[in-house]
Amino acid sequence: MEVSKVGKRGAIIVPARLRRKFGIEQGKLVVAEERPEGILIRPAIALPVEIYSPERRAEFLLSNAVDVEDYRRAVGEVRKMGLDPERVPHHRPRRARRNRR
Q1: What is the separation, in whole angstroms, between the first and last Cα of the chain?
Q2: What does the alpha-carbon distance between residue 28 and residue 79 come to, in Å, rounded to a whole number?
Q3: SS (H, E, C) the chain
Q4: Positive or negative, the Cα torsion across 47, 53, 55, 60?
Q5: What is the Cα–Cα distance from 30 to 39, expressed in whole angstroms?
Q6: Which residues, listed in sequence order, are joined to residue 41 by a DSSP beta bridge?
Q7: Using CB atoms within 10 A as the burial measure, which of 27, 30, 47, 80 is most buried?
Q8: Domain boundaries along the sequence of the chain
């Protein structure tokens, strides 16, 4: 156990030995969690979040169809989104290319 002092703005110095052990370096993120026994401070990871446009979601639906029937369902979902499936860049399943209506 090591003791640290709390600064004016609530800053806490984490002892160097513990920072090294847990990979906490200057500029890295940490999470502070409230626990019944106190506060748990641990390393955190920030992952970028991509927010998909309707066009991108339509591309996923159409490109991930595995057969003709699945592709037809995807086309229906894309139309429900108010998009024209023919204008969305995507890859059709092989059978869907031959049996296209």
Answers
A1: 72
A2: 45
A3: CCCCCECCCCCECCCHHHHHHHCCCCCCCEEEEEECCEEEEEECCCCCCCCCCHHHHHHHHHHCCCCHHHHHHHHHHHHHCCCCHHHCCCCCCHHHHHCCC
A4: positive
A5: 12
A6: 32
A7: 30
A8: 1-46, 54-98
CA distance 89 to 57: 11
The amino acid that residue 26 corresponds to is Q
Strand-pair partners of 43: 30
Q: How does pLDDT run across 2-59, given as a tens digit for each residue?
A: 888 899 999 999 999 999 999 999 999 999 999 999 999 999 988 899 899 999 999 9
Under the banding of pLDDT at 50, 70 and 90, the label for residue 95 is: low
